[in-house]
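New to this. Explain the following:
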Amino acid sequence: MAEKPGISLITVTLNEEQLIGQCLRSAWFCDELIVVDSFSSDRTVEIARSLGAQVIQREFTNYVDQKQFALDHASREWVLLMDADEQATHELGCEIERTVGSPAAADGYQIRRVLYHLGYYYTRPVYPDRPMRLFRRASGHIGGRDPHDKVIVAGRVGRLAASILHFSYRDIADHVATMNRFSTRAAAENQPGFLTPFKMFANPAWRFFNFYVLRGGFRDGGRGLYAAMAAAFYVFLKYAKLYERQLNSRRPL
């Protein structure tokens, strides 16, 4: 009987003591747990090590570099990338074990993420989030543009049926703080232009219409309205910060 291929979990952390334990426990099917921590001041490192994780501390640069650094320290044939605020369902663990053990396995797999927020699991297409998260270590690397990293795989790609649960925001205030932080990073990765003021209006309007109407957010009642408004607000913040940079560049020194 062939030996089961090994799986490394990689994740990055900063002050995630409330969630890192559940994240690591949910990866019961992984043979190696790699945590790259940005010098947390809470019990994140202690909890991770108590659960058998190899913890490497590194100053945070950006999400792409940090996750690639974690990937560079993985040693198993397969890699599962999860954020500290995510958990693999038991069904996903069983499916991954079957998948990596199959002789017909692809080189990477997209996994659906189900967001939990406002006491509700967003299972409808309002958040059609299916990132690449499971892949052969030799075939993948971390790319994308900060803060939106992504796994890039050279080879055949498939999809898994089971889900990752995403416990991203404690409350609305935490969500707003996250949008503020991420929009600052996203704006820094772009350059303002002639159309920036127009995009500050048009792109959020399109995002709201896309989330609320095309993706069916209206079927989720008030929570769907919140999701669409929040998505539009994030886009507005990104372009507003670009516009601010544009105005500042015109000021005389």
About this structure: The chain has a mean pLDDT of 93.
